[in-house]
């Protein structure tokens, strides 16, 4: 199963908090329904966004994963399929995986900003913690409880509280990430999560054995 992706929401300042949001939907929402804000994605310079990847640069297969930290199906993939993918293909030099953020709601944006706060070397470790703890932090009291739970995950990854606060209140980064997400999703025609681009081919979420067959077919070319 997947979560459907609708229109991109606007980046707004969350009332009284200093954190940024896409819209006011809850972590269980399935679509982005608010129109984009004052600046369109084409007016935002996204060149500063670091593309998070794992695996050898010269791997014969590149997989671009589109996922949201508030998507339960993405969490399920990361707790099973991703670990198998890493052992079978990434760690053996056959696959390079690139992670592209998708934002269904403000909480997914905040989680992404926490994951990115530790830099590329900590991103996938923090992402694992976020997906593993999704049922806890995404269901905490809104919005302060969610913020505090996300900060706990950041601190568990060794990031100091002042740095976490700075990451979560970085308006420019929030706007840039949203624009980057929109650019990527429109370019690759993404309408649900998780979705994958395997050597340029769009692949929807599927059982791991079927996903493995797609990868093996690419490796056989």
What does this structure look like?
It is a single chain. The protein is globular. It contains 9 helices and 9 strands. The chain is an alpha+beta fold. Strand 2 (12-13) and strand 3 (20-21) form a beta hairpin. The two termini are 29 Å apart. Belongs to the thioredoxin family. DsbA subfamily.
- Tell me what the CATH architecture is: 3-Layer(aba) Sandwich
> What is the CATH superfamily classification?
Glutaredoxin
Helix/strand-derived category reads alpha+beta
CATH class bucket: Alpha Beta
- The sequence of SSEs as H and E is EEEEEHHEHHHHHHEEEH
Radius of gyration over alpha carbons? 17 Å
Widest β-sheet, arrangement of strands: 4-6-5-8-9
Give the averaged pLDDT, no decimals: 84
Number of strands: 9
Helix % is 40-55%
What is the domain tally? 1
CATH domain topology: Glutaredoxin
Q: Which percent range describes the beta-strand content?
A: 5-15%
Main beta-sheet strand count, sense and barrel state: 5 strands, mixed
The number of distinct helices, counting runs of at least 4 residues, comes to 9
Low-confidence stretches: 6-39
Q: Give the CA-based shape.
A: globular
Straight-line distance between termini: 29 Å
Task: Write the SSE topology.
Elements: E1 3-4, E2 12-13, E3 20-21, E4 52-54, E5 61-67, H1 72-79, H2 81-90, E6 95-101, H3 106-117, H4 120-132, H5 134-137, H6 144-156, H7 161-168, H8 171-187, E7 192-193, E8 195-198, E9 201-204, H9 208-219
Parallel strand pairs: 5-6
Antiparallel strand pairs: 1-7, 2-3, 4-6, 5-8, 8-9
What are its keywords?
9 helices; alpha+beta; 9 strands; globular; Glutaredoxin; 5-stranded mixed β-sheet; about 220 residues; two-stranded antiparallel sheet
């Amino acid at each position: 199963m997947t979560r459907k992706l609708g229109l991109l929401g606007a980046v707004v300042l969350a009332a009284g908090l200093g954190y940024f949001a896409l819209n006011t939907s809850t972590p269980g929402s399935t679509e982005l329904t608010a129109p984009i804000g004052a600046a369109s994605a084409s007016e935002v310079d996204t060149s500063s966004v670091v593309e998070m990847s794992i695996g050898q640069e010269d791997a014969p297969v590149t997989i671009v994963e589109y996922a949201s930290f508030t998507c339960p199906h993405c969490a399920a993939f990361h707790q099973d399929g991703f670990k198998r993918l890493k052992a079978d293909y990434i760690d053996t030099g056959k696959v390079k995986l690139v992670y592209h953020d998708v934002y269904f709601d403000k909480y997914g944006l905040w989680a992404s900003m926490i994951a990115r706060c530790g830099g590329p070397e900590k991103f996938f470790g923090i992402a694992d913690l976020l997906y593993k703890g999704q049922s806890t932090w995404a269901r905490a009291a809104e919005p302060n409880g969610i913020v505090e739970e996300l900060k706990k995950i950041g601190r568990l990854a060794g990031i100091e509280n002042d740095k976490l606060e700075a990451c979560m209140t970085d308006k420019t980064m929030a706007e840039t990430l949203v624009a980057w997400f929109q650019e990527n999703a429109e370019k690759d025609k993404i309408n649900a999560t998780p979705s994958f681009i395997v050597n340029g081919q769009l692949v929807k979420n599927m059982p791991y054995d079927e996903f493995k067959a797609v990868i093996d077919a690419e490796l056989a070319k």
